[in-house]
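ok so i was messing around last nite and threw this chain in just to see what happens. nothing serious, just curious
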Amino acid sequence: MNYSSYLDTADFQALALHIMIGIEIPVHFLGFYCILFRTPISMKAVKWGMLNLHIWSIGLDLGVSLLTVPYILYPALAGVTLGILSKFGFPVSYQTYLLGVLIGLLGVSIVSILENRYYLLFAREHWWRHVRLPFLIFNYIAACSYFTPAYYYIPEQTEALQNVFKMLPELPQEIYDAPVFVLATDFRYVVFPVCFMTTLMVAESATFIILIYGNMAERNKKLSLSRHTMKMQTTFLRCLNIQTSIPLLILLLPMGYLVISRIFKIYCQSANNLCFIIIAAHGLFSTFIMLYIHSPYREACFRIFCSKITRYSSRFSTVSTVL
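result:
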């Protein structure tokens, strides 16, 4: 059997992700520049939280598009990696664990920026100031360790690979000849830890959003905050919610397909490839949204690019006049 489309192949997966990383790197550098040098005093309190979120978004992009480049034979939890780490001989089990940790740390960075906002606005004199450090440490430990059961119960590969090939339809010969790695044959060791971490991050994020809006509404009733301050805080919080929620909503598309694929045992390699391309684009979407919705960053980008266009146009006009 041969794949019916170039989209099914490992070559397409590698090429698409390598092209994407070429687009992502300059955009991410622009994001770094804006956070470090164009964050106004009014946003100084959240500067490092935004930088932390940006770093882990970049980490996930680099992890998928450059370091590992996964080619997954879903609905089996098996596949090969085509990235730099494989070229240097890193075991696929380590690479899989790395991706799991990067996803967990991204979730923790979102919770951290929301927690920081709650603390700065409402909890500096609250009992929460004594709990926040252990809370954050717990989250980071959870992000670095939640994938341990999946790693610990990696099956014996020869028998597991036979089970995988029985599950899937006939594959091209190059797949049978490739060093396919099987993460698990029992999905519980992967699904339960992932569900635990996802539920924890969603619950914590929702809690801080509710606490922030609830406290703002209460203070607004008591008129303890000026209208200008309230409007500024509400606008910034809305921007922050958009910055964190839209990329996560984008991730729901591939995640939803992967769940459906597992339930109904659908094997479509081109869809698998496109799912990981969308996942790899998460940080790119996040950076674009950050640069657009926060007005200081948007204005900085307009000045940078408009000045370059103006200089280019003036040079072109000068050359045309001389000719």
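not much to say yet. DSSP finds 13 helices and three strands in the chain.
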